[in-house]
Amino acid sequence: MDIIFLNEFRAETIIGVYPWEREVPQTIQLDLEIGLPHSRAGTTDDVADTIDYGKVVERIQQVLGEKHFSLVEALAEHLAQLVMTEFGAPWIKISITKLGLIRGVKRLGITIERGAKS
């Protein structure tokens, strides 16, 4: 399986369970590995034969601007399902990191993997 990746994609969103987390947007970091539904793009050199990562980024930014989550787990699941459903990815691994949120903790977050990696 061919995999495209987006590393250290940073975006602003409202996320958290505590009232102070929901007052001001936080910077989160997303790292995605997205399985391609077929591997023809290397031969055809045609964006139609792959997943357009620019459109994936635009769609994620749209979601982060419109929808707010309490848990990084829920956001990760939502984004994983979105990429698989809207872009036809058979497999995705996504990590979401909150940066510098808790004193003494540089990064915290979750990594999930969904779909079948063949």
From TrEMBL:
Keywords: Folate biosynthesis, Isomerase, Lyase. Pathway: Cofactor biosynthesis; tetrahydrofolate biosynthesis; 2-amino-4-hydroxy-6-hydroxymethyl-7,8-dihydropteridine diphosphate from 7,8-dihydroneopterin triphosphate: step 3/4. GO terms for biological process: folic acid biosynthetic process. Residues 4-114 form the Dihydroneopterin aldolase/epimerase domain. GO terms for cellular component: cytoplasm. It holds the Pfam family FolB. This is Dihydroneopterin aldolase.
